[in-house]
Amino acid sequence: MQTVYETMYILRPDLGDEQVEQIISKYENLLREQGADNIQSQNRGKRRLAYEIKKQRDGIYIQLNYTGPGKMIAVLERAMRLSEEVIRYLTINQQVKEPKASTEAA
């Protein structure tokens, strides 16, 4: 069994494209330092929030998918909590079964 994590976080809407790319690479590097593998990030773009968060009505959604040890989640979420650019984040984990090798004899 391999644990796959997905972190979705929302950035302030007033950030420029270059700032967004810097923030994405900052969190990807942080995950690599903590031992994460298969890091994939997707910029989902600016969207309207369902309700106001920290006096913001819009946000830039970023999705990170990665595998690695569970201890890295606390480090990542602490960095996001202390950042002024991130207004909300959520991490979930999924248990993905590895495909079995076919050992059938004909």
Layout of strands and helices, then pairs:
Blueprint: E1 2-11, H1 17-33, E2 37-53, E3 56-67, H2 71-82, E4 86-96
Antiparallel strand pairs: 1-3, 1-4, 2-3
Overview of the molecule:
By secondary structure, the chain is of the alpha+beta class. Helices cover 27% and strands 47% of the residues. The chain is built from 2 helices and 4 strands, in the order E-H-E-E-H-E. It has helices at 17-33, 71-82; strands spanning 2-11, 37-53, 56-67, 86-96.
Straight-line N-to-C gap? 28 Å
Unreliable parts: none
Largest sheet composition: 4 strands, antiparallel
Structural class by helix and strand composition: alpha+beta
Order of helices and strands: EHEEHE
Shape: globular
Oligomeric nature of the chains: single chain
Q: Quick check: average pLDDT?
A: 88
List keywords for this structure.
106 residues, alpha+beta, 27% helix, globular, 2 helices, 4 strands
